[in-house]
């Protein structure tokens, strides 16, 4: 009968045996559930970085994957096909409509190449090309990109004068800033690609904005006056040239006519001279009579012979002398 009695040790062994069995039955489903939580899905526009005890293990792409759940493992999913955007010199407060912005003057005020101050806001678009570098190379990628973009823009703007920065130089500023920013980020090894640098608002500082507007207005007036003057010149100069050409042509025609008339007079005189040489007395008499006819055409004439001595002749001569004296 004593053999049928259990000792205290036997009772403890019995209890421990059943407790171990109970623990096995209880922990198995918990372990299964825990392992099932390691299943995760990466979206088509995502990549995931896997960490084992906080250390980088690998990067996986879209699809269904399994990795150690927390606290052993950790996974960080990021959209790598998305185009990200950072703002420099301003921040969007409300997308609206209407949109509201906050000016960050410590980022936007820059010095141009001719030592003028300009207020310049711009944005940077980029995408992630190396997720591991993007997450672990720098502590805060967003602020790093803003700082690098601001430094790049300041360096590029310092190469341009203020007038060029406000007008036709904007496209060159954007291109050069994009190239410079990419160089800086490649040195950092941040794992992003700069897609675009877009100027949002470029203007002089507010305290001198009105003065710049007045200068711009004066330049526009100057251009308008120059265009009007050129238009007037284009209208008047062809007319003046036409009149000058007409006057020259008329003068040349008059010259030609006078030369021909002079040549004709010379030829006529030479012809007359030839006739005169043939009969000098006859020609002299003819010329004398032609001149008398021309000059005394409208007067009463009495023709007498100078050889005749008579009272009538003396009377006529006396009357002629008296008339001459009275005149």
Automatic annotation (TrEMBL):
Any one Pfam family here would be: Band_7
Domain named Band is located at: 37-216
Q: Where are the transmembrane segments?
A: 21-40
Q: Name one GO cellular component term.
A: membrane
Q: Where in the cell is it found?
A: Membrane
Q: What is its main location?
A: membrane
Q: Where is the signal peptide?
A: none
Q: Which UniProt keywords apply?
A: Membrane, Transmembrane, Transmembrane helix
Do you know which PANTHER family this protein is assigned to?
MODULATOR OF FTSH PROTEASE HFLK, STOMATIN-LIKE PROTEIN 2, MITOCHONDRIAL
What is this protein for, i.e. what is its function?
A: HflC and HflK could encode or regulate a protease.
Q: What NCBIfam families would the database entry show?
A: hflK (TIGR01933)
Q: What subunit structure does UniProt give?
A: HflC and HflK may interact to form a multimeric complex.
Into which family does the record put it? Belongs to the band 7/mec-2 family. HflK subfamily.
Protein name, per record: Protein HflK
What is the protein's species of origin?
A: Propionigenium maris DSM 9537
């Amino acid at each position: 009968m004593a053999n049928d009695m259990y000792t205290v040790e036997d009772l403890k062994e019995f209890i421990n045996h059943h407790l171990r069995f109970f623990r096995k039955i209880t922990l198995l489903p918990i372990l299964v559930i825990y392992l099932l939580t390691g299943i995760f899905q990466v979206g088509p526009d995502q990549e995931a970085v896997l960490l084992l005890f906080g250390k980088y293990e690998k990067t996986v792409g879209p699809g269904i994957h399994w990795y150690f759940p927390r606290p052993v493992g950790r996974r960080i999913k990021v959209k790598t096909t998305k185009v990200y955007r950072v703002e420099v010199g301003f921040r969007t407060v409300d997308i609206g409509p209407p949109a509201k912005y906050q000016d960050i003057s410590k980022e936007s005020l820059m010095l141009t190449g001719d030592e003028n101050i300009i207020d310049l806001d711009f944005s940077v678009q980029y995408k992630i090309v190396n997720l591991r570098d993007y997450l672990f190379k720098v502590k805060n990628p967003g602020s790093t990109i803003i700082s690098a973009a601001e430094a790049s823009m300041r360096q590029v703007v310092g190469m341009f004068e203020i007038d060029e920065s406000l007008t036709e130089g904007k496209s060159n500023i954007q291109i050069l800033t994009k190239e410079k920013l990419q160089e800086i980020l490649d040195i950092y090894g941040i794992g992003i690609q700069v897609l675009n640098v877009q100027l949002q608002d470029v203007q002089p500082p507010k305290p001198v904005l009105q003065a710049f507007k007045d200068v711009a207005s004066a330049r526009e007036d100057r251009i308008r006056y120059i265009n009007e003057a050129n238009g007037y010149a284009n209208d008047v100069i062809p007319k003046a040239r036409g009149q000058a050409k007409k006057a020259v042509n008329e003068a040349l025609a008059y010259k030609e006519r006078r030369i021909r008339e002079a040549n004709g007079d010379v030829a006529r005189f030479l012809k007359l001279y030839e006739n005169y040489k043939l009969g000098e007395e006859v020609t002299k008499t003819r010329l004398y009579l032609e001149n008398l006819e021309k000059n005394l055409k409208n007067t009463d004439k009495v023709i007498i012979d100078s050889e005749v001595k008579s009272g009538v002749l003396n009377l006529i001569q006396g009357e002629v002398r008296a008339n001459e004296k009275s005149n």
